[in-house]
Amino acid sequence: MSAALSAVPNPFLALLAHRTPIVADGPMGTRLAELGLPAGDAPERWVLEPAGQAAVRSVHRAYREAGAQILLTNTFGANPTRLALHSLAGHLDEINRTGAQLARRESGSGMVVAGSMGPTGEFLAPLGTLPFEKAVEGFTRQAAALAAGGVDVLWIETMTDLEEARAAIEGARQGAPGLPVVATLAFGAGGATLMGVRPAEAIAVLADLGVSAAGANCGTGSAEVERALARMHAAVPALPLIGKPNAGVPHLEHGVAVYPETPADLAAAAGRMSAAGAAVVGVCCGGSPAHVRAIAAAMGQRGR
Fold this sequence. Notes:
With 304 residues, the chain is an alpha/beta fold. It has a single domain (9-298), classed as Homocysteine-binding-like domain (TIM Barrel). The protein is built from 12 helices and 10 strands. The model is unreliable at 1-5 (pLDDT under 50).
């Protein structure tokens, strides 16, 4: 990297430095399902062919126009383990690189493209059979391909196991050593992740690992994320936090999953998350451009 390029500030870190609420986007998977993604299929498959790429870009565009300042790539499950479930492991580099490029094409001036990196879906040894080193290797490949596609930050999300989060962070640093890394965990109604990790424990570990920001996403809705962020902020006040909750717990209406939290609900929650220490707010599963637009308005941002 030349001296001139290294002197250019990273867009994500520049946003964080302003210390004003940053608006992240909403979910990709549930939006693609509304556009025809078959149940059980991998959203990442859609970056491999023109019609799917157009759909992915339309989702990014809608979030940008709603006021999002951060677009997450359609690469949540684009690690070797999860892609293998859909016979896509051989396309790992292409999926991550292209997913980053699609988000970049829809990003506006001053916007951030974040490379989404989700869990493997397997338990790490000794609880499971996936060796820590193998997990690191997979995340390293994913991070390198996302960096090649032009992301600004590596966005590790929906983790439940701190060892897997550590593997993802290590892989992100090995694959793209010049990029900042953030990590968020998914907390349930009992205040802990499925692996029993609690917010104060999580933030202490993630802070020691040197992430640029950390927080909570997904889960049971905004109330649980608010509580998690408050506990994280109390434990490590200096670390910028991220809040990206689901729009509540879905229920079925005529066979369709309906999420109960409205755009107004999420806008109010965004204000409370910001007050609890969140530097970045958005919405996860069940969210829509309308949710992002309401959050952006509440945070003083305008749609594009």
